[in-house]
Amino acid sequence: MEAHLTGEFAHLRHRGGPGDEHAFVPDRMAWERELASGGWTCVGWPEEFGGRGLPLDLEVAFHEEYARAGGPGRAGLIGEGLLGPTLIHFASPEIQQRFLPGIAAGEEFWCQGYSEPNAGSDLANVSTRARLEDGEWVIDGQKVWTSLAQWSDWCFVVARTEAGSERHKGLSYLLVPMDQSGIEVRPIRQITGTAEFNEVFFDGARTAADMVVGAPGEGWKVAMGTLAFERGVLTLGQQMAFQRELEHIIAAARDNGTWNDPVLRDRLVALQIRVRIMRWNASRALRTDDQAQLPREAMINKLYWAELHRDMGEAAMDVAGAGAMLTRYSAAEEGDAGELEMSADHKLFFFSRSDTIYGGSNEIQRNLIGERALGLPREPR
After folding, report:
1. Domains along the chain?
2. Hey, which residues does 217 pair with through a beta bridge?
3. How far apart are the C-alpha atoms of 309 and 239, rounded to whole Å?
4. Dist. CA 16–CA 248, nearest whole Å
5. Which listed residue (21, 59, 108, 230) is catalytic?
6. 103-107, 169-173, 359-363: segment of lowest average pLDDT
7. Which of 96, 291, 338, 365 is deepest in the core (most CB within 10 A)?
C-alpha cells in the first residue's frame, strides 16, 4: 500500500466509502486493476477461483491493514464480496468460469438488483418479473437503491419467474448485462448532494436462459446466501472507517474545547467502547455454514452498527456546536440549485440517518433476531 497508493492513486486515500461511493469511480476501477496485478483482490477466495486462499485470520488482517493504510472504497466490492462467494457456493462451473476471472481481475463490475419500491426490507415482496422467450429471460420491473448501477457492467437480479407465485416461492437469481436498451438507470440525488444510489427500470431487458444461479425457482435460497456473505469479512473495513471517523470527532472536540464538557466526553468514550465491541462481535461471527447462512451471533451486527453510526453522526454535530448549522451551496448554473457543500461531519450526520433503513431497517432486523436467532414465534397476521 505504501508503494502503490501514491502518484496517480494518492488522491484516493480514504475516499469512496459509504456516503462517498460516487467519488473517483473510474480511478477506483483502475485501482482495482492495480490490486489485481499483484494478486490482492479476492484474497479469501480459493486459489482455483483466482484468489489467494487465505485462512480467515489472514483475510481479516488484510482488510484491516487495507483500511488502516487509507485504501479507497472498493469499486469491485459487490462483485468480490457478494456475487463472487455466491457463485462459488451456488453456481454451475460454466457460470463460475465465465464471471469469476473478470471479478478477480478488476475488469467487470457488478450491482445488486434486490430492493424495489414495495420490496425493500421485505425482499420476498419483489414484483419484478422474468419470462423465458426464445432462449432468453425477458425482464420487466423496477429496482431501487441500486448502488453504482450507472457504472456497472452486470447486475444480479432477483425476479419472479413463476406466474402466480407469492413471497419466497417462484423467484430466480438472474445475471443481467447492464449495457442494453431495455435498461434505464436514473440516479437518486440524496440529502448529502451525492447520487451513488439509483433507480433501475427493466423494460423488456434480456439475458440468456442459462444466466441463472442455482435452478429457476431457487432465487430466495441463493439471495439469502448473498446476504450472508454481505455480512462477512469485508465489513471489517467499515469498522476501521468508523474508528477513523470517531478519531476525527475526538480530535475536533479537543481542538474546540468541547472535550472539557464531561457529559459530551462521556458520550465520546461510550462511542469508542461501542466501536471496539462492534469489531470483536463481528470477528467472532465471521463464518457461514454449508448452507451459506449466518451464525446467530452475526444477526445483531447490522442493527448494532446502524445505531452506532447514527449516534456518531449526532455526536459530531454536538461537538461542532453552532458551526454545525452552517453549510453553503456551490456556484450553480442558471436554473440549477447547485450542490450542497458540507464538512466531513455534516456528511457523516446526514448519511448516517440512512444507516437504520438501508440493508434492512432496524424494525426488520429486530424481527430477524427474534425469529431466526432466538426462535420466537411470528405474530399471527
Report:
1. 7-109 (1.10.540.10), 111-216 (2.40.110.10), 231-373 (1.20.140.10)
2. none
3. 10
4. 17
5. 230
6. 359-363
7. 365
Query: What pTM does this model have?
Result: 0.81
CB atoms within 10 A of CB 240: 21
The DSSP code for 373 is I
193 near 340, Cβ under 8 Å?
yes
Choice between 375 and 335, residue whose per-residue pLDDT is larger: 375
Query: What is the spatial distance between Cα 153 and Cα 207, in angstroms, rounded to a whole number?
Result: 13
- Categorize the per-residue pLDDT at 233 as very low, low, confident or very high, splitting at 50, 70 and 90: low
SS3 percent helix, strand, coil of the chain, rounded to 5, is 45, 15, 40
Sorted by sequence, the CB contacts under 8 Å of residue 162 that are 6+ apart come out as 169, 170, 216, 217
Q: What are phi and psi of 267, to 5 degrees?
A: -60, -40
Query: What are the residues whose beta carbons fall under 8 Å from the beta carbon of 205, sequence distance 6 or more?
Result: 138, 139, 140, 176, 180, 182, 183
Q: What is the pLDDT of residue 365?
A: 86
Write the CB contacts of 58 (distance below 8 Å, at least 6 apart in sequence).
Answer: 43
Check: CB of residue 64 under 8 Å from CB of residue 236. Answer: yes
Nearest by Cα to 95 from 46, 143, 49, 149:
49
Q: Which of 62-66, 232-236, 340-344, 351-355 has the highest mean pLDDT?
A: 62-66
Active site residue 8: no
Any idea how long the chain is?
381
The closest alpha carbon to 159, from 213, 99, 121, 197, belongs to: 213
